[in-house]
Design brief:
alpha/beta; AB_hydrolase_fold; 10 strands; about 15% strand; single chain; two-stranded antiparallel ribbon
Length: about 325
């Protein structure tokens, strides 16, 4: 379903260039707004036997962050891949007159609309950072099968389609980021100040060292960090959420244990989501967390991006075996 996006203000002049085999298109939401998607289909003949993969980014990112490494990698392994840009991010439309792009529920509903209309079979849904919290909201609304509910944005009946599984990557935990901030304040006040400046004040956009410390490994090449820094500057025209309203709505609703296969992943060098946050998410879903050594918060862009991708690939292979007849 390829459509021309609505004209909006403030779009970056040049969208990130796509890699070979990737296409950019715009999904029309029930609201009439257009949501960017970068798609890379597998050329393998057995791709129909594997679940599609749908990727949801976090703050200051967009679909491009998955297209850099993980879309080529997973499509090469036989998976059809879809990376979306949430409203107000990347090349997606900005809601008229809005100060924030949406709520946890509206973002999850937009993802569900894309999955329902653009994806051929139940996918595995990936979420990074705040995108992981959006995936958690999706899961809580899915309730194991299909749940019909009014869409917060349109008032029409809405469905959260079934998933084959979910992967939460350096995800904000179910209770939100308040616990993360509080722990940093109590144990690492300098780190807390840096995180606040980098994210809340968007200081990462003007400081290469702070951008590297916040998102990437210390061994990352500065030229590459600067390239991603420039992309991140242009990725978010309005904030994803009103954080006060978001935290007031949390934690996300719990789901029955074993109702969906979930991989909870963290990074040993994550400057944003600490080990306690990783454990909280894993315990909430009754699974063992996986902490990938030697990578930072932006696992899919880091110089050792293959480490996380290989862990996920092994999990996907096991998942696929369980679902094959």
């Amino acid at each position: 379903m390829t459509k021309t996006p609505l004209a909006v203000l403030g779009k970056p002049p040049l969208p990130p260039r796509l890699k070979e085999g990737q296409t950019r298109h715009f999904h029309r939401l029930p609201s009439g707004l257009a949501m960017e998607a970068i798609v890379q289909k597998s050329s393998n003949s057995d791709s129909s036997l594997k679940p599609p993969l749908v990727f949801v980014h976090g703050s200051f990112h967009a679909a491009w962050c998955w297209a850099e490494h993980w879309l080529p990698f997973f499509s090469g392994e036989g998976f059809d891949c879809h990376a979306i840009s949430l409203l107000g991010q990347g090349e997606s439309d900005v809601p008229a007159g809005a100060n924030v792009a949406g709520s946890l529920e509206t973002h999850a509903s937009d993802v569900a609309d894309y999955v329902q209309k653009e994806v051929r079979s139940p996918p595995v849904l990936f979420g990074h950072s705040f995108g992981g919290l959006i995936v958690q909201s999706y899961i809580s609304s899915m309730s194991g099968q299909q749940m019909f509910r009014p869409s917060p944005s349109s008032g029409s009946m809405f469905t959260h389609p079934t998933l084959s599984g979910a992967v939460l990557i350096c995800s904000v935990p179910p209770s939100g980021n308040s616990g993360l901030v509080w722990r940093y304040l109590m144990t690492k006040p300098i780190a807390a100040l840096k995180v606040t400046l980098s994210l809340a004040a968007k200081a990462f956009a003007n400081s290469l060292p702070l951008c590297k410390e916040t998102f990437f490994s210390a061994t990352m090449d500065d030229d590459l960090v600067q390239r991603y820094q420039e992309l991140m500057k242009n990725s978010s025209r309005i904030p994803l959420f009103d954080l006060r309203k978001l935290n007031a709505s949390l934690p996300v609703a719990s789901i029955p244990r074993d109702s969906i296969e979930i991989l909870v992943m963290g990074a040993s060098d994550d400057f944003i989501v600490d080990a306690a946050g990783l454990r909280e998410t894993a315990e909430f879903y009754g699974v063992q967390p996986v902490c990938v050594d030697g990578v930072a918060h932006d696992m899919m862009l880091d110089c050792s991006w293959e480490k996380g991708a290989l862990v996920i690939l092994q999990w996907l292979k096991a998942l696929n075996k369980e679902h094959l007849p």
